[in-house]
Amino acid sequence: DAMVIQNPRYQVTQFGKPVTLSCSQTLNHNVMYWYQQKSSQAPKLLFHYYDKDFNNEADTPDNFQSRRPNTSFCFLDIRSPGLGDAAMYLCATSRDPDSYEQYFGPGTRLTVT
Amino acid sequence: AQSVTQPDIHITVSEGASLELRCNYSYGATPYLFWYVQSPGQGLQLLLKYFSGDTLVQGIKGFEAEFKRSQSSFNLRKPSVHWSDAAEYFCAVTMEYGNKLVFGAGTILRVKS
Fold it and tell me: How is chain B split among helix, strand and coil, in percent rounded to 5?
């Protein structure tokens, strides 16, 4: 089945220690998104890639970076995680920017100790 | 500014009872509307969507939603709730090229037997 895969499902990192979260997709979609969802809150868009074109949300902290080496993979890098970065990180894809429907992965739960 | 309101943070219903979850949006024109469901520790699953046409849309798992332009609402309904429906439900909208989803705060559904 075509799908969105996120690894790992659970990640523990230390305060200030860089961490990378991974997302892959078999849907061959052009757009990939990263959302942050803190406990009991709605998902919040951090940034998205349309093909290789990176689009950062205005209020996304500089601490968060992303890479998309090819169509299938997208990475979220947190350079110096703080306690406030503990959250569920959701990856999503859509076929095109105007296809409007997004497909979500299962998420990675990040804990910062 | 664009916004989505889900006025009920928690709802508890008895198994077999009917359900209605409310969603109101604030936009200048008709947006594209979605309902997603999220089980604990999981990603988001699309229940249904409205783009245009018939204002009553059918989704998966027996859910339906009705778009009412005059009330700027897109309420989710199910005639008979099952215990497995216990989860958090998010209403979301988008209007922008680039497919930025704006989520409501979510409604947590509890089902009592």
Answer: 10, 50, 40
| Contact criterion met (CB below 8 Å) for A107 and A37 | yes
Nearest Cβ partner for A109 among B34, B41, B103 = B41
Q: What's the burial of A27, exposed, middle or buried (CB within 10 Å: 0-12/13-18/19+)?
A: middle
Q: Give the residue from chain B lying closest to A55, CA to CA.
A: B98
**Using one digit for the tens of pLDDT, what is the confidence trace for A19-47?**
999 999 999 999 999 999 998 888 999 99
- For A90, which of B44, B46, B106 is closest by C-beta distance? B44
User: In this model, does residue B54 exceed pLDDT 80?
Assistant: yes
Contact with chain A for residue B100, Cβ under 8 A: yes
3-state DSSP call for residue B15? coil
